[in-house]
Amino acid sequence: GQQVMQIPQYQHVQEGEDFTTYCNSSTTLSNIQWYKQRPGGHPVFLIQLVKSGEVKKQKRLTFQFGEAKKNSSLHITATQTTDVGTYFCAGPTGGYQKVTFGIGTKLQVIP
Amino acid sequence: NAGVTQTPKFRVLKTGQSMTLLCAQDMNHEYMYWYRQDPGMGLRLIHYSVGEGTTAKGEVPDGYNVSRLKKQNFLLGLESAAPSQTSVYFCASSSSFSGSGANVLTFGAGSRLTVL
């Protein structure tokens, strides 16, 4: 079936360093979403990308959707301890109601 | 506004016991989902529903049943719990698709289930 793959699975960075997580789908996606889950918490929606080649920014976070709509990335500039958590990408597979998540990237920020 | 509420938050079961997890949303959302989260496995879709009285299988439906008798509630049942079902279960809901993207999911706080 359709899959949403995400790398890396874990990332440790020094505070102030940049961080990037990548998401790839085996098929073209109509859109991609990103979520953040703080330790012990639940996933919280960050952003949705819809258009081919789309780039969106939220303060230090930059989200990109590939031209072929099969890959996406989340880049955090100058990480802070508040960025700690697991970042998930998700996309509709097997029909728009069925939302499949990537495995997530767990970010640790060392002060 | 409570959003998505899951009960119970914690539960310990013995192998073979049955139980039901309840998810309730007050946002009038059409779509509801049950995911399980295990270390190193991400969020895997168990079952979902696109409306009252309808359910569909996700990636890992075996060993679980669901019901959506009321629009605001989505129940996840384990008829005979197994240790492999030890996990954190998340319910989510979203409004009906109306654009070119999938629905944005609002998650509950999660239910931690341990099967001994």
What does it look like?
By secondary structure, chain A is mostly beta strands. Chain A has no helices and 11 strands. The model of chain A has no long low-confidence stretch (mean pLDDT 93). With 116 residues, chain B is mainly β. Chain B contains no helices and 11 strands. The model of chain B has no long low-confidence stretch (mean pLDDT 92). Classes of the chains: A mainly beta (111), B mainly beta (116). Chain A binds chain B through residues 1, 6, 9, 30-31, 33, 35, 41-45, 48, 50, 88, 90-92, 96-104, and chain B through 31, 33, 35, 40-45, 48, 50, 56, 58-59, 90, 92, 94, 97, 99-110.
Indicate the low-confidence ranges of chain A by residue numbers: none
Give the oligomeric state. heterodimer
Q: Given the structure, what is the number of helices of chain A?
A: 0
Q: How many angstroms does the end-to-end distance of chain A come to?
A: 41 Å
Which regions of chain B contain 5 or more consecutive residues with pLDDT less than 50?
Answer: none
**Structural class, from secondary structure content of chain A?**
mainly beta
Report the portion of residues of chain B in β strands: over 45%
Large-scale geometry of chain A: globular
> How many separate helices of chain B?
0
